[in-house]
Write a structure and sequence with these properties.
Elements (H helix, E strand, L loop, with lengths): L4 E7 L8 H15 L2 E6 L11 H8 L2 E7 L7 H9 L8 E8 L5 H13 L3 E10 L1 H4 L10 H27 L8
Length: 183
């Protein structure tokens, strides 16, 4: 049996009073329940934040990524962009999946922009996304999802695909180092 995949669960927001904590906890609980991943929460608002060199090491050690992102003004947050841009090669040949939240679009515009960014970093984005439109209305005051059946099914699918890509790409990197630039 394969050892668990090392998953970096990345919070996309550093705003004070952010809703990312609620959605991030929900996502982390599902990842832990799934059992195929060892989770490392990377939070740009934490004291270590997005500062190298520790961030470089954490991204390098990860086999896969799950980004929990809000949508701010039809895009993804600056704190997430700074975190992504702080690290280069450690993103290469690794899968990235998304849980998004926001208003009417549920953060999907942010996800589509992030797909372009991660493609440039030679990362593989998973097609499946879990999205929460009007997110604050979907969770109760304690952070529990009010109608969990559909999001739980979607998350199970996302995690299955992320695990497949995580194992396939980990094996690929072990067999032949990935080089982003070809000489």
């Amino acid at each position: 049996m394969n050892p668990p995949l090392r998953l970096a669960l990345i919070y996309g927001s550093a705003r004070e009073g952010r809703f990312c904590d609620v959605v991030g906890r929900w996502a982390a609980e599902r990842v832990v329940r799934d059992g195929r991943f060892a989770v490392d929460v990377v939070d740009p608002a934490a004291p270590e934040g997005a500062s190298p060199p520790r961030l470089d090491e954490r991204i390098a050690q990860a086999d896969a990524f799950l980004v929990v992102t809000p949508e701010y003004n039809h895009g993804y947050p600056a704190a997430l962009k700074a975190l992504i841009d702080t690290v280069g090669e450690p993103w290469h040949a690794k899968p990235v999946a998304f849980v998004s939240y926001g208003g009417v679009s549920g953060g999907l515009r942010a996800v589509e922009q992030l797909r372009q960014v991660f493609a440039e970093l030679h990362a593989v984005t998973v097609r499946d996304t879990v999205s929460f439109a009007n997110a604050p209305e979907r969770f109760d005051a304690e952070g529990a999802l009010l109608e969990p059946a559909r999001p739980d099914r979607s998350m199970a699918t996302l995690l299955a695909r992320l695990a497949w890509w995580g194992h396939a790409l980990r094996q690929g990197r072990a067999a032949a180092p990935y080089r982003g630039a070809v000489a």
